[in-house]
Specification:
heterodimer; A: about 70 residues; alpha+beta; Glutaredoxin; two-stranded antiparallel ribbon; 4 helices; about 40% helix; B: about 160 residues; four-stranded mixed β-sheet; 5 strands
Amino acid sequence: MMAIESEKVTADVIEVAEFPHLAQRYQVYAVPTIVINERLRLEGARPEEAFVAAVEAAVRPPEADHAGQR
Amino acid sequence: MGKEGGIMPLLSARDQDYLRKRFAEELVDPVTITLYTQRLAQLQLPGYECATCREANELYSELAQLSEKLKLEVVDFLQAQAEARTAGVTDIPTAVFSGKNAGTVRYVGLPAGYEFAVLIEDLADLSRGTTRLTPLSRETLAKLPAPAHIKVFVTPT
């Protein structure tokens, strides 16, 4: 849904049973498994607001994750 | 008796009627499905057999025939590698959907079971450019500081 409404979002739905090399690369053991920007991973369905929060977190620059930890 | 080539339709007559009516009610603007696949007629290259391309070719072809607002473009992945690369396609079959969507929507593999039902709903959203996202979600997505590439791994159920 997000990719339909936002130009900043690309969404791939992947039938993992057909692509064992992807299942292995992304260590997919349960479905749905969601990977965002190759850096954030979720397993299982999420409520919309949690999913959107995950997308926000995934696009945040990595150094922002460590801000405030100094 | 099957169609030319001996391939039986994947969608039953009853399913076709149901989808035809549903598309007539729900599709607003046209949606183009660009299917990157392996053409049936070409020689099979050893080591590059696509297990589900035949079925994907058939399924999307049958879907596109159920509405004037659905257009199918079939691209041979091996013969159009530069185009596939530009479209971000690395595995086949992959369908890239172009309608009123703002972002990029792709389906990799053969949509089956529950995922087929989701695809049908997505076609309606693609044709309208709107979904059931809340206003807050839309606002958050509009403010994203960088692109988001979401990969959802599913399996037929």
